[in-house]
Design brief:
5 helices, alpha+beta, about 15% strand, single chain, nucleotide-binding, two-stranded antiparallel ribbon, 3-stranded mixed beta sheet, DNA binding, 5 strands
Length: about 130
């Protein structure tokens, strides 16, 4: 309990009078992902890391960078509530990738947004250019 997240309490047993210490801490509710088909599943940070690493193949984005990005996304989601849609998660990943690596951003966006052709890439590149400026 040395991280400051707990409360230390001294208590006394009503039966025998013995004194003891208890520690209380807030238990975080697990994040739940609402998929596009309406089903739910537990949030898995490793899925974000895997998706980012797949998009970053051959780019200067390390596994540690992907882990930091995934942790930031998880933290952002946990401040909003216990449920998040896949759209919210994808948007948060893209926001962070825009600050990390442009090529990885485009690769991730092409799968996440299901690009159909060159026009989709050009439109997304235009949005990315506006964000970078």
């Amino acid at each position: 309990m040395d991280d400051g997240a707990g409360i230390r309490r001294r208590r006394q047993c009503a039966g025998c009078g013995a004194r003891f210490t208890t520690f209380e801490r807030v238990e975080q509710a697990p994040l739940v992902v609402i998929k596009s088909d309406g089903t739910t599943q537990p949030f898995e940070r490793s899925k974000i890391e895997a998706g980012v690493l797949s998009a970053a193949k051959g780019r200067p984005v390390s596994a540690a960078d992907a882990g930091v990005l995934a942790a930031a996304v998880e933290e952002a989601l946990s401040t909003v509530g216990v449920e998040a849609s896949t759209a919210d998660i994808g948007r948060l990943v893209l926001e962070r990738l825009a600050q990390t690596d442009d090529v990885t951003y485009l690769r991730f966006a092409s799968v996440y947004k299901a690009f159909q052709g060159l026009g989709d890439f050009q439109a997304e590149l235009g949005r990315l250019s506006k964000v970078s400026d």
